[in-house]
UniProtKB/TrEMBL annotation:
Stretches that traverse the bilayer: 192-212
Membrane keyword on record: yes
Superkingdom of this protein's organism: Bacteria
Signal peptide feature range: 1-19
The name this protein goes by in its record: Uncharacterized protein
Keywords assigned by UniProt, alphabetized: Membrane, Signal, Transmembrane, Transmembrane helix
């Protein structure tokens, strides 16, 4: 009973049933266009479906009562469809994710998503000329909670974790030089720790539950043995 109580307490504290910035992180994939060198592609994907519902409520697309009194989120399958087809969501994406090249802003256009939950949403940014380097700023969901982070990946293994104090990052495209190997190694270590901090509690819960299940099976097996 003590073990069960401990597990329930851990589940309640480490993984609350509500949208929060400490679960699986949202992601952004950054890529150049194969045929249009002036275009930069961004694909954003939420870390969980509850975040889509919460964003829909904040944008006025879903009723306030979808956020329960205890903070839990009541997600419905139609939430993603309502959000994906809305003008407020399009405007939000273009405000929270921006691209600039050579000091000039690139014009963004949102491709209406067919599967917002599974595949995310694509945004194309057209710059004034061919892009060798671009500054990409990502602030998705930071207005809901500043602790939200976004794990971003780009061409040739480039990576970045967007979050408080680091909402802007420069990316290299085409044949543009990458950062030095030393700085890349330091950045990779920092990225690993940041991601571990986001998903660590979930892995801890899974490990504890697995351990308790093994203990229960062993006790049952011991009781089944003839005395």
């Amino acid at each position: 009973m003590i073990a069960v109580a401990f597990t329930l307490t851990l589940l309640a504290t480490a993984v609350p049933a509500q949208a929060h910035p400490y679960g699986y992180p949202q992601t952004v994939t950054i890529a150049a266009d194969a045929t249009r060198p002036e275009v930069v592609h961004l694909r954003w994907k939420a870390g969980g479906v509850d975040e889509l519902t919460l964003l829909g409520v904040e944008l006025g697309l879903l009723p306030q009562d979808r956020v329960l009194l205890d903070g839990a989120i009541s997600f419905q399958a139609s939430d993603a469809t309502i959000l994906a087809s809305s003008t407020p969501f399009t405007n939000y994406l273009l405000k929270q994710m921006t691209v600039s090249s050579d000091g000039h802003a690139c014009a963004g256009a949102v491709d209406p998503p067919s599967d917002l939950v599974g595949s995310g949403v694509d945004v194309d940014y057209t710059c004034a000329g061919p892009v060798g380097a671009a500054r990409v700023e990502v602030r998705m969901l930071s207005d809901l909670d500043p602790a939200y982070q976004t794990v971003a990946t780009g061409p040739r293994g480039q990576r970045q974790v967007y979050g408080p104090g680091r909402y802007a990052h420069d990316w290299a495209f085409g044949d543009a030089p990458l950062p030095s190997e030393a700085s890349v190694a330091d950045h990779d270590r920092a990225t690993a720790w940041k991601v571990a901090g986001s998903v660590g509690p979930l892995l801890l819960v899974a490990a504890v539950v697995s351990l308790l299940r093994r203990q229960v099976r062993r006790r049952r097996a011991a009781r089944a043995l003839p005395s």
